[in-house]
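Changelog-adjacent note: as of this version, every example in the card shows the full chain rather than a window. The one below runs 141 residues end to end.
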Amino acid sequence: MVAEARNLTPKPTGVPWEVGGSLAVAGSTAYAAVHAVSLKPGDTVAVSAAAGGVGSIAVQLARRAGAKVIGIASPANHAWLCQHGLEAVAYGEGLADRLRKFGLNAFRSSSRGIRRGRSPSRRDRFRGWRAKQQASLPLRD
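Full-length structure tokens:
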């Protein structure tokens, strides 16, 4: 394979090749998800799997766009989320209630990309998310 130097990025020092090789895929997936909802300063987005490969990049891009980011992750990852300026929320019973108080504009599911609401009645944006059955979580425009 031949590529022009301007299309290449050096592998970060100390990052193994098998990890560095996946950064482009995780990064482009996170970028596409964040870009798709056109986050604006002041928006609030919840990111599931916020400390995972795609999620950890998505939360940083969303913050860079000026959004308030709610990171959903296990308690073991909450310190990392807080160090990156996120509000950490744990998975489990009552997740919908914990998220409702934030008035979300968008939600990133670890399996469905980021969804942006159009009106409070657009609950289908949480399609496939277990908490949808527990309580309705309207998204703000």
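Structural remarks: The helical segments are 17-36, 53-64, 78-83, 95-100, 131-134.
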